[in-house]
Design goal:
The complex is a heterodimer of chains A (about 60) and B (about 850). By secondary structure, chain A is mainly alpha-helical. Chain A contains three helices and no strands. With about 850 residues, chain B is of the alpha+beta class. Chain B is built from 33 helices and eleven strands. In chain B, the strands form four sheets. Chain B has a five-stranded mixed beta sheet. In chain B, strands 1-2 form a two-stranded antiparallel sheet. Chain B has a two-stranded antiparallel ribbon with strand order 3-4. In chain B, strand 10 (about 805) and strand 11 form a beta hairpin. Chain B is elongated, with a radius of gyration of 43 Å. In chain B, about 45% of the residues are buried. Classes of the chains: A mainly alpha (about 60), B alpha+beta (about 850). The interface of A and B includes residues 1, 33, 34, 37 and 52 of A.
Chain lengths: ~60, ~850
């Protein structure tokens, strides 16, 4: 459990702090939504989902 | 909206909150729910989140998000951080990080300094909440003034709430289910309100993104922060919010002090980040519509203004209640936790000196009122100034100064009190120089010249010539970096600190002290816990009880009267003994176990030896009888040649019979010898039903000869066992039964628990009561056999991990078990 939680922490740290300005230079994206926010909320939702799968049975 | 209607709504909502808290107090089990725990953590989301996030998104773009990404990261680390912290808090009844610093680094100025600094550093943050409520109230009522009056009324009501539900008893480590339930309820209200506002605005005004993309002015809001400094600011905000989530006093209170069950943590680790994600979903659309449609409005009020613009005053009122919820939860819990800090680390020692400790509960209640009145005063003094607006993040950086001493103290044995103090003082000084004082200068409380600094290298917002960083990132990196470096560095140079003195005392005297200070209930609880503890351990437990109620420094002072210092010359020995006592106890227990096993084995060996002697005697005795008969018969035949043919035939038949008996005896003895020296059973998957059928068919000729009918009731069973030995036992039992039966023998096979059970039943006279006990001993035959059959059967069965025994009842009924999962294979059954 500890190792998996730490691995998830590292993944989340990478997803949340990578140099976003190098990746998202445009304001328009799919469904007319800004790609920066699509990425941030998508990465966040992914981390929450993985945390749910990992921690739902302690 | 009418101000009176709005005020009535506000009062009704606060009344509802009181009812929820009362309900929680009367049903404490309601708070023992993982969802309530996760929602109570959402006290993190204050009015700053509810109103300020849209404001920040409207001016700074995506940088409103790292404030919520940080807590998500921290919760993923709960198996290390919170698990350890909860265990410590339960053992030592910690009520704050300052208590932990005292516990970890011992008595000294660090804990009181940290407590005082937190109170000062967080007052502006509290003021911000009061202002948010007042501002929202005035905005919706359309009034300009008096802003301060609404803020004062709110502060007084919230102080009353915190006093009623947070200070019912002296022990602050005691849980407050009503308060927790009210906070969880408020978390639901603010989430629901913000999602409803977002949905209403999207439904009535439409999608703001296409219009925002058409407006170049709004593009910076849709793009990430630019350049290295922008990236650094982003990463710093993530780190800063992580630390703030961990070290804000209100978070410690709800996450640790109010924690009912450590198993709620894994649930909170995904549920609380999900909450934060949901509450942030509507922020950007609201910010963009605010920028597009309300260009002259204060961005912090977009959440209230947009529902009004969409023509829905009830939703605007609900948004107001959401903002009130966010602010009240924060103010109540933060006010309570700051009052505990104040009373435990600053007030208690003063009251003890004045012999007025009995009034501590009153003082704690007054401390709550004082904290909220000070927050109100700060709001009145700072007003609309920069110091108030920017204080959210500045308070976060202040709180983060606890991190090096606390986190290193939690995980690194080498951290010392001197290192922690040096790092903390330097961090606080740099926080004040780079963030707090410049904020005051911008507010007009200090001359603007201060912002230039005495030297270019000492520029408050660009130390050592650093340029391009925003003030928060700069202040955070400089203060926390120095703090961490000094904590580490000074600790490395002061590692040989003298160990803290242990104290010891009589349990009865300690209990009397606790009863005098904290009451009979606490003394009784202590007596239960102290049962079987040494004097030193009991003193430590008593200190934990006192510390949670009065603060660690006061607890230490009070203990002086009923305890004594562990003698100096014995200290190293005592410490060593304490460290090793656990290992020694375990070792001694293992020794005792081994000794018992050894004694048991010796007894078994003695019994076996004796059994062998007895067997030898019995074998010799049994062999002697037929041998004597054979010799006598042979002599008669040899010395009497004149015997008649009939007599000669009779003697020859007797001779053959005795020789056959002799042969059977020798055969059984040889089988016994093979059993003693033979190889271990060979376990293999065996079909027990087929084996039983084979045993029946082998017994069939004997049964036919004696006119006995064989019956069977066999269930299909498989076992991992030695096929030949099981067959041998079955044959022994069946042959025995056939010999004694009158008309029939029945063999049954079934499962019982983890065993296969064979039963061999016959309709014979059964075993007489007096013979039942010795039926399994060697040479105990009831039917003139060798008397070794049952003895061998029992030994064989025990070697397979099973048993053979005689059942109660009429007739002969022998049972034989074989384990279905054999783990042990002692060839001699023991």
């Amino acid at each position: 459990m500890k190792e998996k939680a730490f691995a998830l922490f590292l993944l989340a740290l990478f997803l949340f702090t990578l140099p976003l300005s190098l990746l998202f230079r445009g304001v328009g994206g799919p469904w007319e939504l800004p790609p920066l926010y699509l990425y941030l909320f998508g990465a966040w939702a992914l981390v929450v989902l993985l945390a749910f799968l990992l921690f739902r049975r302690p | 909206m009418s101000p009176w209607a709005l005020l009535l709504g506000l009062l009704l909502y606060l009344g509802l909150l009181f009812l929820v808290a009362l309900w929680g107090e009367s049903r404490p089990r309601l708070a023992q729910n993982p969802w309530v725990y996760a929602l109570s953590l959402a006290v993190y989301a204050t009015a700053w989140t509810f109103l300020g996030s849209a404001g920040r998104a409207a001016t700074e773009g995506a940088t409103f998000l790292p404030i919520y990404l940080g807590p998500t990261l921290v919760l993923l680390l709960w198996p290390w951080l919170h698990g350890r912290l909860l265990a410590l808090a339960r053992t030592h009844r910690l009520t704050s990080w300052a208590d932990f610093l005292h516990l970890r680094y011992g008595p000294g100025p660090l804990a009181p300094l940290a407590a005082g600094f937190l109170v000062v550093g967080l007052l502006p943050y509290l003021a911000l909440q009061l202002k948010a409520i007042a501002q929202a109230f005035l905005f919706l009522s359309g009034e300009e003034a008096p802003l301060a009056d609404v803020a004062l009324l709110t502060a007084l009501l919230l102080a009353l709430f915190a006093i009623l539900f947070g200070t019912r008893r002296l022990d602050p480590s005691e849980r407050h289910p009503g308060l927790v339930l009210a906070v969880a309820f408020e978390s639901l209200v603010k989430l629901f309100a913000l999602l409803l506002v977002g949905a209403l605005v999207l439904l009535s005004l439409g999608n703001p993104f296409p219009r925002a993309q058409a407006e170049p002015d709004l593009h910076p809001l849709l793009l990430p922060p630019e350049g290295l400094s922008g990236h650094l600011a982003w990463v710093s905000l993530v780190a800063l919010s992580s630390l703030a989530f961990l070290f804000l006093p209100r978070q410690f209170h709800v996450a640790v002090v109010e924690s009912q069950n450590p198993r709620h943590l894994p649930h909170a680790a995904w549920a609380f980040p999900l909450y934060l994600l949901l509450i942030n979903l509507p922020i950007l659309p609201l910010a963009l519509w605010g920028r597009l449609l309300l260009p002259g409005e204060n961005p912090d009020l977009y959440v209230l203004a947009l529902p009004l613009l969409a023509g829905s005053p009830p939703v605007a009122f609900l948004a107001f209640l959401g903002a009130v919820s966010a602010a009240t939860a924060m103010v109540v819990v933060e006010g309570l936790s700051l009052s505990i800090l104040l009373s435990n680390h600053l007030l208690s020692p003063l009251l003890l000196r004045r012999r007025a400790l009995g009034s501590l509960l009153l003082w704690r209640r007054l401390a709550i009122l004082l904290v909220l009145l000070l927050a109100y005063l700060y709001f009145r003094l700072a007003g609309e100034a920069y110091a108030l607006v920017g204080m959210g993040l500045i308070s976060f950086v202040a709180v983060a100064q606890l991190a090096p001493a606390a986190l290193l103290g939690l995980f690194w044995k080498g951290a010392t009190g001197a290192g922690a103090l040096a790092g903390f003082l330097a961090g606080v000084a740099l926080w004040a120089y780079t963030l707090f004082l410049p904020a005051l200068a911008r507010s007009g409380f200090l001359p603007p010249l201060f912002l230039e600094g005495p030297h270019p290298l000492l520029h408050p917002e660009g130390l050592l010539g650093l340029k391009g960083l925003d003030p928060i990132t700069h202040g955070f990196l400089v203060s926390l970096g120095t703090n961490l470096a000094l904590t580490l560095g000074v600790s490395l140079f002061t590692r040989k600190e003298a160990p803290l003195g242990g104290r010891t005392g009589e349990v009865a005297a300690l209990a009397a002290l606790l009863e005098r200070i904290l009451g009979k209930e606490v003394a009784e609880a202590f007596l239960k816990e102290a049962e079987g503890l040494s004097g030193t351990e009991a003193a430590l437990r008593a200190e934990a009880f006192l510390s949670s109620a009065l603060g660690p420094a006061t607890a230490r002072l009070l203990l002086l009267s009923v305890t004594e210092e562990a003698r100096e010359e014995h200290k190293p020995l005592l410490e060593e003994a304490a460290r090793e006592s656990k290992a020694v106890r375990a070792y001694a227990q293992a020794l005792e176990r081994a000794q018992a096993e050894l004694a048991e084995a010796y007894e078994r060996l003695k019994a076996l030896d004796q059994a062998k002697d007895e067997l030898l005697w019995a074998v010799s005795h049994e062999l002697k009888t037929p041998l004597t008969a054979v010799r006598a018969l042979a002599e008669i035949l040899a010395t009497h040649p004149d015997l008649s043919e009939e007599e000669r035939r009779r003697f020859t038949a007797l001779l053959a019979k005795e020789a056959a008996r002799l042969s059977r005896l020798v055969e059984e003895v040889l089988r016994y010898a093979r059993l003693q020296t033979g190889p271990a059973p060979k376990k293999e998957p065996t079909d027990l039903k087929a084996l039983a059928e084979e045993a029946l068919s082998l017994t069939e000729p004997l049964a036919r000869e004696r006119g006995v009918k064989l019956e069977a009731a066999l269930l299909p069973l498989q076992a991992d066992t030695d096929r030949d030995r099981v067959l041998q036992v079955l044959l022994n039992l069946l042959t025995n039964a056939v010999r004694h039966a009158q008309s029939r023998v029945r063999l049954e096979l079934g499962a019982r628990g983890q065993e296969a059970l064979f039963r061999v039943l016959d309709d014979g006279p059964g075993v007489p009561k007096e013979a039942r006990e010795r039926i399994f001993e060697p040479f105990q035959s009831l039917a003139g056999g060798t008397g070794l059959g049952l003895y061998l059967a029992r030994r064989l069965a025990e070697g397979l991990g099973g048993r053979v025994y005689l059942e109660e009842g009429e007739g002969g009924a022998f049972a034989f078990t074989v384990p279905l999962e054999v783990n042990h294979a002692d060839p001699f059954g023991g």
